[in-house]
Amino acid sequence: MKVRSIFISDVHLGTRGCQADRLVDFLRDYESENLFLIGDIIDFWAMNRGIHWTPAQNTIVQKILRRARHGQRVMFIPGNHDEAMREYDGVSFGDIEVRLEHIHLAADGKRYLLLHGDEFDQVTRYHRWLAVLGDVGYDLLVRVNAWLSRLRRLLRRPGYWSLAGFAKSHVKRAVSFIFDFEDSLIHAVRERGLDGVICGHIHSAALRRVDDVVYVNCGDWVDSCTAIVEHHDGTLELVRAWQPVAVAAAPATVQAAVSPAPALCVPAGTPGELPRPALVCSDGVSQL
Ligand SMILES: [Mn+2]
Fold first, then answer.
1. Structural domain includes residue 184
2. Domain that holds residue 19
């Protein structure tokens, strides 16, 4: 499929949690004029603790480099896990531009702020040690989840169930953390007179309008395997690359909520304590 732009974040190359195969499939399925890598693409934090690098992860790097070489615009906006690259704001490596943030002009004239978003996360900003600790915990959660889904497959339980997604949506503090993050980004974008923001960082994919601005989060390639694409008319779409085990033979890409009815994808049946109504993706996909 040909789209105008692809936005991905939080791939976490170099870690066990990185679902590189799914990203390879996604990059095979989607061609674009622009590819925006919105932070935490390579996880230098985790690589300090031990490198986990697979052939599929190599393929991702090669596919990205090939796109840049073939004249597609590739921009890398570093996140906190690849913050070493932040020193190179404005520098181009080969054909890949590095920027701390960027304003993307969509085909419909809308202007979106692209940034990773960790500067809007009070935890990573002021308590780095806590963030690193949480990171190790998340790693563990993702690993336990991999075992659980293997078990589900063995027991022939259909569908995909995410422990990290479950924890995120059922722990009240995590929910309020996500909303605090979203609120401060929405506020910043409104202040700057832009139409929306496309970010990452919190591993929680979203595509929704909040009054006069659009809040978009690319999600991640550790747990939810999501990307944002911009079509040639400027419409944004949230794409989910994972597929239920039961339909493993179906095409690799499952498409989720499409604007103009942007949806925040949260698990169906999330407790009613959410600060605002939670919408479920139009295709009934319920994991995040
Ligand atoms: Mn991050």
1. yes
2. 2-258
The predicted model scores a pTM of: 0.74
Ligand 1 midpoint to CA 18 (Å): 14
Reference 202, options 183, 229, 188, 230; nearest CA is: 183
Determine the Cα–Cα distance for residues 263 and 135; give it in Å rounded to an integer. 27
Condensed to tens digits (0 to 9), the pLDDT of residues 168-213 reads 666 556 667 777 899 999 999 999 999 999 999 999 999 999 999 9
Task: State in Å: Cα 198 to ligand 1 middle.
Answer: 13
- pLDDT tens column, 57-103: 999 999 999 999 999 999 999 999 999 999 999 999 889 999 999 99
Six-digit token string for 164: 């990290």
Distance in Å, CA 149 to ligand 1 centroid: 25
Is 278 part of any domain? no
Q: 87 C-alpha to center of ligand 1: Å?
A: 17
CA of 11 to the centre of ligand 1 (A): 10
Whose CA is closest to 12, among 168, 179, 177, 219? 219
What is the Å distance from ligand 1's center to 177 Cα?
14
Q: What is the CATH number of the domain that holds 80?
A: 3.60.21.10
CA of 160 to the centre of ligand 1 (A): 24
